[in-house]
Amino acid sequence: MKVTVLFKNQLRQIDFLKPLHISLPVQFEERGVNAFYLDEPVFAPFRAGNFVGSVTEGGACNCEVITLSPHGNGTHTECIGHISRERITIHDSLKEYNFFARLITVVPESINDDNIITKEILVKAFKNNPLLKESTALIIRTNPNELLKTSRKYSGTNPIYIEPKAMAEIVALGVEHLLVDFPSVDREEDSGLLKSHHIFWQYPAAPRMQATITELIYVPDEIPDGDYFLQMQIAPLESDASPSKPVLYEIV
After folding, report:
1. Any idea of the CA torsion for 31, 33, 35, 40, to the nearest 10 degrees?
2. Of 239, 218, 247, nearest to 79 (Cα)?
3. In principle, which of 10, 29, 72, 109 could form an S-S bond with 38, CB 3.0–4.6 Å?
4. 134: exposed, middle or buried (C-beta count within 10 Å: 0-12, 13-18, 19+)?
5. 104: alpha, beta or left, given left = phi > 0 and alpha = psi -120 to 50?
6. Which residues of the chain fall short of a pLDDT of 50?
7. Burial of 96 per CB tally in 10 Å (0-12, 13-18, 19+)
């Protein structure tokens, strides 16, 4: 199924039968990615009296009870409610689901024991290929891009993060939806300051209610840097974050 869109002042096509998946699923038996010392997700058949929600255990159907922590159990999308005093949910914040997006690949700078995406790195990435006005979403892939990212246990490893000056640059570029392949845009241990989160959402001075951050994606190497059509799929949860499934499509 092909759809025609106006992009760069030209009519271009998107083939919705050719999705490019960049999410990591919530997995059972500790097979999936995990971060922030959060418990691994639990998948268990529902039990009530003689009923068991497992066909393999003799039940008539499968009915699982799932316990998970979106912020550490796979790809997730979060809203301003992640840092706000007010209860704001991703279900209420994300009202649109289709965007033009730019995918870039960067190598974080090693500073002492940290691996940081700096403002200089972003400026260099956009020097010869500026972010388009149509692109309200930015996807950051980091190198090295080993397959281990899909199952890594990040807790206590001080993963990659975005320095506040770089996040201010991202906001200045007009990015409303930021997607990254690491657990958090802030340092794992930062005394609870979450500076880059606050800068991105401009909270509390001028809250960007519609803006979202998606973390723990994985973009395979065979997907080249460039411009894409992005669909953001989330579960309709009344929480600050939800497991999500961002999908890219080529613009031809």
Report:
1. -30
2. 239
3. 72
4. middle
5. beta
6. none
7. exposed
